[in-house]
Amino acid sequence: MRTALVIGTGLIGTSAALALAGRGVRVHLADHDPDRARTAAALGAGTDAEPAGQVDLAIVAVPPARVADTLAGAMRRGAARGYLDVASVKGGPRRALTALGCDLSRYIGTHPMAGRERSGPLAASADLFEGRPWVLTPTPGPDGGTDTEVLNLALELVALCRAVPVVMDADAHDRAVALVSHTPQLVSSMVAARLRDADETAVRLCGQGIRDVTRIAASDPGMWLDILSANPGPVADVLAEIAADLADTVRSLRALESASEDERGGGAAGIEDVLRRGNAGRDRVPGKHGAAPATYEVVAVYIGDQPGELARIFADAGRAGINIEDVRIEHATGQQAGLIQLMVEPRSAEGLTEALRERGWSIRR
Prior knowledge:
Blueprint: E1 3-7, H1 11-21, E2 26-30, H2 34-42, E3 55-60, H3 64-76, E4 80-85, H4 91-99, E5 107-112, E6 133-137, H5 148-160, E7 164-167, H6 170-196, H7 200-203, H8 208-214, H9 221-230, H10 232-256, H11 261-282, E8 297-304, H12 309-319, E9 326-331, E10 337-344, H13 346-358, E11 363-364
Parallel strand pairs: 1-2, 1-3, 3-4, 4-5, 6-7
Antiparallel strand pairs: 5-6, 8-10, 8-11, 9-10
Helix pairs in contact: 3-4, 6-10, 10-11
């Protein structure tokens, strides 16, 4: 791949352009808002000048509702040898392209499983996709199916962005992201919405749990309305199952208020069931580098909110010869301090604890 055209210079489009430009591909940038394309170009993502001729690959990074029309327009003017989109839904755009009479042999639907709460070119990063799954949904069939050259261009894009290719059926992809991406966004927003009118004393009690649950509720509503409007059925199916669990859980909690010992026992069993099913589901979430979930020991350390503290604790762990597998920080409300949780292999926990104590760190049991 020598040349590429990125149509849509938001977070995903600009991030892909930055990755390609950084690896020697000449990238042309286009956007319905010329200022966004100029911003992306100023960041080093390419040039906002039109290509002189046909490019190798056109990457359409626009909202799902605009994918088909944008692709069709690029195909009509022969903008590229191959075309792909990076929208978060795949079945709808393909069906719309078919209805428009487009040549699907020159197209492949893709979806990089990466993102941030912020949007726009200023939020972009060349390493956004590193190590993340990038779904490819080639059109099946010997007649009109995705051409091998186009598939290879898509695979090259994934490699240049240092992502991990995953091949799926388009509709299976849409059902999957409804569960692992779209529904979590709505649930996070629903929980966060409870805080809007909550008493200030309750809000001041917010800890790491509510921060974790509501993190993605900071996402752009307009962007998510576009996504959810393109995949409403599968998301509604998952929410209906969650609604059934919620109804059962409400009944179980009400039963715990009952004067009847039998009803309280049934309520407790219902709560325990949903918690244990949650444990089982959480255990299936892939761990570090996509491997099977690992069990780590947590070494919790008090840390001051001042420059250099994180670097110092990581350096002290490195001097002890211990690899930090993961890390989380809990911020103390109203205090210039927090709690850093260092996840390590169980056999390393005792050594790390002793090494950090020797260097003056306060360890929390």
